[in-house]
DNA sequence: CTGTTAGCGCGTTCAC
DNA sequence: GTGAACGCGCTAACAG
């Protein structure tokens, strides 16, 4: 661009400017012993004058570690990857570790491609983020670095995986509705191809059964993770005439549609029906009218957990298997 | 973890296994000349057997380039950063360049911190993504690598910036409403601290004036980028009794709130009022009822543009100043 | 065509 | 307390 294309300065230049040898300069800058205080100051000043930044490539060539981890995601929107990224930065301590983010777009070929790029760059570890919680095939080949699977667990039990506790999330939602006095509870969820849809439903049903209750219509209504489906499903429920006073929606988007249809059907939320969603996706929950109660899956925590597990895996073996991160209910106006 | 902790193999090992020297092995693997075909095959096989991946750190130590760019974002949600990330991957060719993503969370201290980390890692270039289109201070210091500012332009004209064409977006929205026969057009927008709010309004007003028209109520209603504000503002408009048949909303979220309030006020969309938003954020637009027409700011294109500009900056000076990326109207049911 | 050598920038021995 | 020498893994230039 302009004047800013200052060439990067090297340790040798710093040493020359300070009038010492490279070895001394190195020690001075890295806070090592056997350097006189006055020399240290001289070197530091020289480094500052040249705005010297050590070359990580050279450094990692020696140490074998790069201070870099790879994050391969299949999650286009970043709804899951970004909290995980932020969690990773938190867990590692910002600056100490940098994150290489690759978007595989759910494509195995691209995934392999990015994996190669990450290995060439000698990442110290890899986090693989899925776009749904269905188990996924492990990364192919035997890798020279630890891998942690986040959101979508690996099919292999010997891998380390961190997933949201979807069964628990369903249970939390059901318990919350029961606690607010609802007894006739319906459940609308998304695409039945998603493991999460079934697990959340299982969690709900288990809680209801403990109270001798069952779902309105006897089963969940599966469809799609969309507002449209939320409207359609509620309309059907209303037409069927099965009265209900509590509604668990498989996602906040479904819940938004449900709120619309309930209002259109003359039902007041929360007076006539309590509604709870899952995800606690704020643009959806805060924007809703009334504001939507939702189960937060604690994805940032999931991200931090994944980062911590990767961190321990980098030192030695970490506990293999599936780690579950619990959610929490965020209460708003709809219940 | 388990057996997979295979040590990384080096070129020397490949060379030994293939029974050649390192130099030859290097040439063979890098498709360089002066290697017999049979030798090349032998080396390749050895490399495959050891699942050898070249060490980029060593390679970049020689070439001075790391094949890595930094992306510093202040955009928490990733609404802008991720399209830009994907655009960058597209533009560079996936795998050739990897992206280090840092989240500065709008904090100057963190930004400086991450900048340092990126420089230590010898990135070939940096893209800075803002969370709003207001001009922002340039990265401090004279940097040894090119920088491109995306979404939020640099305050300095001598930097390279890429921003959405907000004035144009407003104009597109107004033109679209006029084209569908609306004449009495109101405009609800977000936080007036955002440059984007004013520019979009300017674009709308300019188009209306060309037709001898002006905004209902004579000026835009500024507030917040929320559904709540959309509802409030429309309610006020309806109460004021100023009739309108077209409504430009500064964001899709505002538009969602507006749709709700219009329905509550007995107005049919699109029959009585045509509504158009900005962002084309699909969870919002597709989920709306009726589905929302919106101006797409073409952020992926903005991302690709930023990546291309960075790419050219890496070779030589690129055109300084602010580059604007035009939006487009995505027509749905609300107009 | 293939092998040998030097050196990228840095940290870490060792001698001094 | 300081400096010189070696090597991390790789490529480039030259020698054979």
Q: Summarize this, please?
A:
Chain A is α/β, with parallel strands linked by helices and about 325 residues long.
Describe the structure.
The structure is a homodimer of 335-residue chains. Chain A has 335 residues and is α/β, with parallel strands linked by helices. The first copy, chain A, has three domains: 3-54, lambda repressor-like DNA-binding domains (434 Repressor (Amino-terminal Domain), Orthogonal Bundle), CATH 1.10.260; 66-165 and 299-326, Response regulator (Rossmann fold, 3-Layer(aba) Sandwich), CATH 3.40.50.2300; 166-296, 3-Layer(aba) Sandwich (Rossmann fold). Chain A is 42% helix and 15% strand. Chain A is built from twelve helices and eleven strands. Chain A has helices at residues 11-18, 22-29, 37-49, 56-63, 81-92, 108-120, 166-179, 195-210, 227-240, 252-264, 282-285, 299-315; strands at 68-73, 98-103, 125-129, 147-150, 160-164, 185-188, 246-249, 274-278, 293-296, 321-325, 328-330. In chain A, the strands form two sheets. In chain A, strands 2-1-3-4-5-10 form a six-stranded parallel β-sheet, with helices on both faces. In chain A, strands 6-7-8-9-11 form a five-stranded mixed β-sheet, with helices on both faces. The longest helix of chain A has 17 residues, at 299-315. Chain A is elongated and about 90 Å long. In chain A, 53% of the residues are buried. The mean pLDDT of chain A is 92. At the A-B interface, helix 4, helix 5, strand 2, helix 6 and helix 9 of A face helix 4, helix 5, strand 2, helix 6 and helix 9 of B. The structure holds a DNA duplex (16 and 16 nucleotides).
């Amino acid at each position: 661009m302009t004047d800013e294309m200052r060439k990067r300065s090297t340790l040798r230049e710093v040493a020359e400017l300070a009038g010492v040898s490279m070895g001394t300069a190195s020690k001075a800058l890295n806070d090592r012993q056997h350097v006189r205080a006055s020399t240290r100051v001289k070197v530091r000043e020289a480094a500052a004058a040249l705005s010297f930044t050590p070359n990580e490539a050279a450094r990692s060539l020696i140490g074998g570690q790069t201070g870099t981890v790879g994050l391969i995601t299949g999650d286009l929107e970043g709804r899951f990857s970004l909290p995980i990224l932020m969690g990773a930065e938190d867990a590692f301590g910002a600056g100490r570790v940098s994150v290489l983010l690759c978007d595989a777009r759910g494509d195995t070929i691209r995934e392999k491609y990015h994996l190669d790029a990450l290995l060439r760059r000698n990442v110290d570890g890899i986090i693989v983020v899925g776009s749904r919680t269905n188990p996924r095939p492990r990364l192919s080949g035997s890798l020279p670095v630890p891998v942690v699977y986040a959101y979508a667990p690996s099919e292999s039990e010997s891998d380390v995986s961190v997933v949201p506790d979807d069964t628990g999330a369903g249970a939390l939602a059901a318990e919350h509705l029961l606690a607010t006095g609802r007894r006739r509870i319906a459940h609308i969820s998304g695409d039945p191809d998603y493991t999460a849809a079934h697990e959340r439903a299982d969690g709900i049903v288990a809680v209801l059964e403990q109270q001798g209750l069952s779902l309105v219509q006897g089963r969940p209504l599966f469809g799609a993770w969309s507002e449209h489906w939320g409207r359609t499903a509620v309309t059907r429920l209303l037409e069927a005439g099965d009265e209900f006073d509590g509604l668990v929606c498989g996602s906040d988007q479904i819940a938004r549609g449900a709120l619309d249809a309930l209002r259109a059907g003359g039902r007041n939320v929360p007076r006539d029906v309590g509604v709870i969603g899952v995800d606690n996706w704020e643009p959806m929950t805060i924007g809703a009218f009334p504001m939507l109660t939702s189960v937060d899956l604690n994805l940032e925590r999931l991200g931090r957990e994944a980062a911590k597990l990767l961190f321990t895996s980098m030192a030695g073996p970490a506990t293999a298997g599936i780690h579950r991160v619990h959610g929490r209910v965020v209460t708003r106006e709809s219940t």
